[in-house]
Amino acid sequence: MSKEEARKQWKARVDEFLASGETATAWCREYDLNVNQFRRWVRKFAHQTVSEHTSSPVGWLPVRVNESGLVGTSEGTLMVHVGSVSIEVKSGFHPSLLKQVVRALAE
């Protein structure tokens, strides 16, 4: 097996593990894998992912409009959801402050 094929195989294993919600020890026991070797691959792929995200330019966040969320919203008010946090933005808000808050929450 070539290095590239091995990397793809380990990447698939790590992705499957991350989706499973199991501990590394339990998952490796189930698939008869060396847990120390497996953890090295998890760290390797996590480091690559962080590098890819930190070298990417800052861009727009996706916006999802929930029609039911518009009921009871006062005019001139916008609700921004970042993860599990909601921010109520009213007219006259300070744009650079909102930008800083959203960036901090997205990290």
How would you characterize this protein structure?
With 107 residues, the protein is mainly alpha-helical. Helix content is 54%, strand content 11%. It contains four helices and two strands; from the N terminus they run αααββα. It is elongated, with a radius of gyration of 21 Å.
Topology:
Layout (H helix, E strand, L loop, with lengths): L2 H18 L3 H8 L3 H20 L22 E6 L2 E6 L4 H12 L1
Antiparallel strand pairs: 1-2
In short:
The protein contains 4 helices and 2 strands; from the N terminus they run αααββα.
Order of helices and strands: HHHEEH
Q: Helix share of residues? A: 40-55%
| Structural class by helix and strand composition | mainly alpha
Please state roughly what percent of the residues sit in beta strands, choosing from under 5%, 5-15%, 15-25%, 25-35%, 35-45% or over 45%: 5-15%
Number of helices: 4
| Strand adjacency order, main sheet | 1-2
Whole-number radius of gyration?
Answer: 21 Å
Find the count of extended strands (DSSP E, 2+ residues). Answer: 2
Unreliable stretches: none
Shape: elongated
Largest β sheet strand count, sense and barrel closure = 2 strands, antiparallel
Tell me the span between the first and last alpha carbons.
Answer: 37 Å
**Overall residue-averaged pLDDT value:** 77
Please give a handful of descriptors for the protein shown:
107 residues; mainly alpha; two-stranded antiparallel sheet; 2 strands; elongated
